[in-house]
């Protein structure tokens, strides 16, 4: 059986509608997606799925003990191959909030904005075909 080369992204947001929208945007960009409704849920998923994940796309403010910033730091420390995008409409990161490799995107955003951001930040080897061939 052939192994798919389609990369996976982990979308994390506590708002079901925003999570669905983010997953759709990432799928339009060429990713398969895993979804988590909190940073805590994402932390629990990572040991099983991290080896397949290329991108973390997370909100900042979520219920539980793990904010998006804390999740980003956890991913950077434990899964360094995963690229990280943090998004928020309420909070802007301050020095030390995010790991050095993480990038920030302000909400609200459109699919075109997310796709352009991903084209800018992802190395060619981690871009899905749709992002590599887009203008």
TrEMBL record:
User: Which InterPro entries does UniProt cross-reference here?
Assistant: Bact_response_regulator, CheY-like_superfamily, Sig_transdc_resp-reg_receiver
A GO term (biological process) for this protein? Answer: phosphorelay signal transduction system
Q: Which residues carry this modification: 4-aspartylphosphate?
A: 59
Q: Which PROSITE patterns match?
A: RESPONSE_REGULATORY
For this UniProt entry, the molecular function terms from Gene Ontology, in alphabetical order, are: kinase activity
Pfam families on file: Response_reg (PF00072)
Residues spanning the signal sequence = none
Can you name this protein? Histidine kinase
């Amino acid at each position: 059986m052939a192994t798919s080369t389609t990369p996976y992204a982990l979308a994390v947001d506590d708002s079901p509608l925003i999570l669905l929208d983010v997953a759709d945007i990432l799928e339009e960009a060429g990713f398969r997606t895993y979804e988590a409704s909190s940073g805590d849920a994402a932390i629990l998923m990572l040991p099983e799925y991290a080896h397949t994940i290329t991108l973390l796309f997370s909100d900042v403010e979520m219920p539980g003990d793990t904010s998006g910033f804390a999740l980003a730091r956890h991913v950077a420390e434990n899964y360094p191959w995963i690229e990280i995008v943090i998004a928020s409409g309420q909070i802007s990161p301050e020095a030390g909030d995010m790991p050095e490799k993480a990038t920030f995107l302000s909400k609200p955003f459109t699919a075109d904005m997310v796709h352009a951001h991903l084209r800018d930040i992802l190395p060619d080897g981690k871009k899905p075909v749709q992002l590599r061939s887009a203008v």
